[in-house]
Design brief:
The complex is a heterodimer of chains A (411) and B (240).
Chain A (H helix, E strand, L loop, with lengths): L2 H14 L1 H39 L3 E6 L1 E2 L5 E2 L7 E2 H10 L3 E16 L2 E10 L3 H4 L4 E4 L4 H5 L4 E4 L1 H7 L9 E4 L2 E9 L14 E5 H8 L2 H5 L3 E2 L1 E6 L5 H15 L10 E5 H44 L1 H9 L4 H37 L8 H27 L3 H6 L2
Helix pairs in contact in A: 1-12, 2-10, 2-12, 2-13, 10-12, 10-13, 12-13
Chain B lengths: L1 H5 L2 E12 L2 E13 L4 E5 L6 H8 L7 E6 L2 E2 L5 H10 L1 E4 L11 H10 L9 H11 L15 H13 L5 E5 L7 H16 L3 E5 L3 H6 L2 E6 L2 E7 L9
Parallel strand pairs in B: 3-8, 3-9, 6-7, 7-8
Antiparallel strand pairs in B: 1-2, 1-4, 4-5, 9-10
Classes of the chains: A alpha+beta (411), B alpha/beta (240).
């Protein structure tokens, strides 16, 4: 009597009671399917948020003038001393751990090419801005330091601009006009998609920050010499970002002559904070899901035990016949155990199928991001097998201890 | 105890009590009995006389309250459940009044059943052996039929094929013709005769005279004791 033979006997017995077998499995099916759907949806949204955050940069800090009130948000920016090129240069010189430092100066202006007219975000930057904000040059090149310093009339354009202004054609070398100034397109940006806040990040044109200041920004920007509205920088990943943040704050307080004890007149946003908060939420969610999964499987297991007990009673005569023709107690125990485990395994496989199917359906019919979590599939199947053994043991043992003649005479 | 050594089955002071609530029923009251290899024995007596109890004890489906049961000189009352299971599998073939076939299972699968639990059979010839036994009882063409698709006589023949599949020394038949009509009963008795002629010891519990008449030895039970033990001349010969 080997396991294979026992499995065959168990499978035949399950097929003989197909409807009851199915009803027994239903608990496990629903449990496993719901676990898989829940986990897929939660890891999908987790991944989506992580992608959005990592597209901001995990070792990136952003600096704005104005006091910070809530986390990284700034308040009363207008009243504080603005940043200038001097601050960008100062940071670069002072700290070795900075991988890249770039200023930014924003303007919204229409861009004209041929008979196309498109209003987009015109952003003045230093060359470092591209790597700091994790942009990737798809075609062409980044700005040179010389272009950034001397007001070069060159532009790098985002995918939305290519689509809307150039109708999908390669814009490299083309002349565009922004506020009547001709710019030559020298590069294109790889698409980044929507930001965390739902706005397309690809509707953008980068120009050197000096050019933006002189040619595109309004009069107010020209009022402050060498104005920089925000500074973005990345810290060497080997360096502790919290410490870097403190050192930068101290440096800026010195530079901006903030009295000791007074509040900072600038704010630093640290995106790794977002990630930390996000991870905490994720682990809480994961814990809840694990609890739900455990409850679902226990309920399914109790269903299995229930049915196996009924099955043992109902099939007492069959057990008697098997004992009469020479089945050992161990054979009967194994048969009912294998039946229980088989029910759980088939149930969990069907559950996995339904779970994956529903996941795909949700993905296709809605905007909810879904990511299939492979380990969870195996964990679900393994737990189902465990539940089968655990809850199948008592009925199986009960069956195996029956006295042959009592079992045969059972009506 | 020379008999005990020679006999295939020996019962010594075999007792079986059943507790029915507060009352104790003495189903067997110290039975002494020897059955030799190749015998064809009918066990008779009114219901409740203990004949079925004896069969269940010999087949180790039940354990005696006291006394000893020897088969091939081995005392089966002192064996563990697994040894008894193997004994039932190897030595005994059961035929019951209610056939006791597995429901919704084909004739062939029913016949195969003892082989699944056999620890002495090579796995690869299970199908062949089961098929051969079905041929022996004349049901090879019904191998795919389930019990409900077979007549009573056919079901009983499937049960006999199942009893034969492990080449048993003894067939224990408890009222095998009880649920069959006269014609089918006679066919079944012919089959038993054939099996006995091939050397299998057959013990059949019955209260039908026709059955007792074809056997060579009649045991008569009353109130848990053997009251008569008659050895007859040969098949079909009655002695009254």
């Amino acid at each position: 009597m080997n396991v294979l033979k026992t499995a065959r006997i168990a499978l035949v017995a399950l097929r003989l009671n197909a409807l009851r077998s199915f009803l027994t499995m239903l608990g496990i099916i629903i449990g496993v399917a719901s676990v898989i759907v829940m986990v897929s949806v939660s890891s999908g949204s987790k991944q989506a948020v992580e992608q959005a955050i990592s597209s901001l940069g995990t070792n990136m800090l952003s600096l704005r003038p104005g006091a910070s009130r809530f986390g990284g948000r700034h308040g009363g920016a207008g009243s504080a001393t603005p940043f200038t090129e001097k601050d960008v240069e100062g940071l670069k010189k002072r700290f070795d751990f900075l991988e890249g430092v770039s200023g930014r100066l924003n303007a919204n202006a229409p861009v004209i090419y041929g008979n196309q007219n498109w209003t987009t975000s015109i952003t003045g930057i230093h060359a470092d801005y591209i790597p700091v904000r994790q942009w990737i040059i798809e075609d062409g090149r980044n700005f040179t330091d010389r272009e950034v310093r001397s007001g070069g009339k060159v532009a790098i354009v985002g995918q939305d601009v290519i689509e809307n202004v150039f109708e999908g054609n390669s814009p490299l070398g083309a002349q565009i006009r922004i506020k009547n100034v001709p710019f030559k397109v020298i590069g294109t940006l790889q698409a980044k998609g929507e930001s965390t806040f739902g706005r397309s990040q690809d509707d953008i044109i980068f120009i050197p920050i000096s050019t933006a200041r002189m040619r595109v920004s309004g009069r107010s920007a020209r009022a402050v010499p060498n104005l920089v509205s925000q500074i973005y920088l990345t810290v060497d990943p080997a360096y502790d970002i919290k410490e870097a943040e403190e050192e930068i704050k101290e440096f800026l307080r010195e530079q901006r002559k903030v009295a000791p004890g007074a509040d900072d007149d600038f704010s630093v946003a640290n995106f790794s904070e977002f990630i930390r908060a996000r991870n905490e939420t994720a682990s809480t969610l994961g814990l809840l899901l694990a609890a739900t999964a455990a409850i679902a499987l226990v309920v399914g297991g109790i269903g299995i035990m229930n049915i196996m007990l009924v099955s043992v009673t109902e099939r007492t005569r069959e057990i008697g016949i098997r004992l009469a023709v020479g089945a050992r107690r161990g054979d009967i125990l194994m048969q009912f155990l294998v039946e229980a485990v088989t029910l759980c395994l088939i149930g969990s496989l069907v559950g996995v199928g339904i779970g994956l199917g529903s996941g795909a359906l949700i993905k296709n019919l809605s905007d909810i991001p879904v990511q299939v979590n492979v380990p969870i599939i195996f964990i679900a199947i393994a737990s189902a097998a465990f539940v089968g053994i655990f809850f199948g043991f008592y009925p199986a043992r009960k069956a195996s201890l029956l006295n042959p003649i009592d079992a045969l005479r059972y009506e | 105890m020379g008999d005990m050594e020679k006999a295939l089955i020996s019962c010594r002071g075999l007792c079986k009590d059943y507790r029915m609530g507060v009352e104790v029923v003495h189903a067997l009251r110290g039975v002494n009995l020897d059955i030799e290899k190749g015998e064809y024995v009918a066990v008779m007596g009114p219901s409740g006389s203990g004949k079925s109890t004896l069969m269940n004890l010999i087949g180790t489906l039940d354990v005696p309250t006291s006394g000893d049961l020897f088969v091939n000189g081995i005392n089966l009352t002192r064996q563990d459940p697994d040894t008894l299971a193997d004994f039932r599998n190897r030595v005994i073939g059961f035929v019951f009044q209610q056939f006791n076939l597995l429901p919704r299972t084909s004739a062939l699968e029913n016949v195969k059943l003892p082989l699944f639990y056999s620890r002495h059979t090579e796995v690869d010839d299970i199908g062949q052996r089961a098929m051969h036994c079905l041929e022996r009882v004349g049901l090879a063409d019904r191998m795919d039929h389930e019990p409900t698709q077979l007549s009573g006589g056919q079901q009983q023949r499937v049960a006999i094929a199942r009893a034969l599949v492990n080449n048993p020394s003894v067939i224990l038949a408890d009222e095998p013709t009880g649920a069959l009509d006269t014609h089918t009963s006679l066919e079944l008795l012919d089959l038993f005769q054939e099996l006995n002629d091939s050397g299998i010891t057959i013990i059949v519990v019955t209260h039908e005279k026709e059955v007792a008449e074809v056997t060579r030895r009649n045991l008569v039970f009353r109130d848990g004791e053997i009251v008569d033990d008659v050895t007859l001349g040969g098949h079909g010969v009655t002695q009254s």
